[in-house]
Design goal:
mainly alpha, Multidrug efflux transporter AcrB transmembrane fold, 24 helices, 6 strands, about 60% helix
Amino acid sequence: MRRSRAMRNPFDKLSETSVDRPKATIALAVIGILALSSFARFIVFDNSEDAFYPQNQTTDLLYEVEDTYTVDIDLLRAIVRLETGASLTDASSWELLAQTEHQMITNPGTVEHHYGLFGEAPNSGPASSVILWQRVQDPGSDTWSMQIEQALIEVSMADDENLSAVVSSAIEALSVIPSTSHVSAEELLAWSPGTPQDWQARIDSGANNEEAISSLMATTLSLSENRNETQAALIAPLQAEAMSSLSPIQAMQGIDLRAPIMGMLPADSRDDPWVEADTALVSLAIDTQPSSHGVELDTEASPIISDLTVELDDSLQGIADASGATITVFGFSRFAEEQAGNLGAEIGILTSASVIILGIILWRQFRSVRDTSVVILLTLLAIGATYGVSGIMRMEFNGAMNSIPILLLAIGVDYGLHVVLRYREELVKEDADGKTTMADFTAEARARALKTGTVLTSAALVVAIFTDMVGFLSFRLSAQNFLVVFGTVIAIGLFFIYLLSVTALPALLTILKPQKIALERSVKVEESEFSKWSGQQALNPMTVIVVALLLSIPIGAGVSQLEIGFDFRDQLDDEV
């Protein structure tokens, strides 16, 4: 009996049209899918922990703080692994660290994008930290305080006749007072570490130059004592300049400059760092604002910075080879780009494996490589259209999305399986007398079977598809953004798979030449021993219920042992 018009599936008309006009249907489907798939390039791949943050007031506050108080930078970090047997007690190791830091500062690709993160300097490394310590704190490297002290003593002893000349000479002598500014690239290149054990002992003891500097400041202040107004006026500029030069140096004496150096060495070597540490970290801060790289979006700046990181890595290999060390440069942008690249490769590998496994399963049922290929191909096209719509909607993908194509493949081939098998069943019911293969039926009979089989299958599938879509769309109620995206993408994919299963699939089956598959094999359903046994158990409901309850006990115990939690690092590729 025909269903009333009011009860007809709205997609039935599409199914009938696809059989009546198969070429137009296929052309429209292919063009539409290719057009949609082209938008997949707009999908945003976000492998940062932000992708797993919930959408709530706390996260909004976090983003507000980041937008207001943080800057767009990337830290390019060079991991310098010393040659086997080498340590930081060797002068050659410090020369290597100084050369590495110098090369990072002067690299042509990054020099225009430096960001003064470390006391107005873009760089931070063990070598520059030691140079700064030697310059402002190390009493063993003090070659200037005695000269200043002598100049000040001469001023204190000068009389009226030569006071002006002596003061001028003392002001000129102040130029040897070291600066507290950051270490330059030229200083790194010219630095000689000398005998590291000597100054390492001083830095470990906490020695500084406080006594000498305090003495100079006291001497400076006493210069105007027992002087008349004219003499005091001559001495005042010297006092002002001396105090302004010495005060920053004195302030630096109370700062622990050893701690930052220890932070650049492995934590497990802190007990005896100069001997045990065989690795050191050198950092360079790079501005990642898109405008500074001539682009508009963060996603466009990230690959540029990643390329700069790789270029910097390559430029350091000459230093590494010459010293026998190993130098690796990494940064967040490089990490993000390689994660995204690995994510794409992993999706391809997993999807290919799924296609092979599902292809074997379908072939065992269809006994036809062609029909198996058609069902899988249409499912893959539906996945492509799904990714295209995701790109139009600017959805953010992360590692959790790897399962999307596999899940859609599993569901999609199931829909196609039902359509093809129902078509074959209807064809056999049509008029199987005197016919031994699928190729023995007329084109009209196959068209009628396709229409009937597709419409009847669609009636069942439309309920399943929309209940599945509602279930996955309920993820949109989640506070986790990646769950919202996951559920939405799956729902979109299910719709496209269903649409192609009831339109493009029957259209292809209409125009393809029928195969000579034996009728008994085309719709053969074998009853296994397990299916017979399970059917018999339905006659003993109490036994089934008791067994189910007994099985639920260990399952419940296992559920109670589950650890509830989420670690962003679990989503990352260990190979990157």
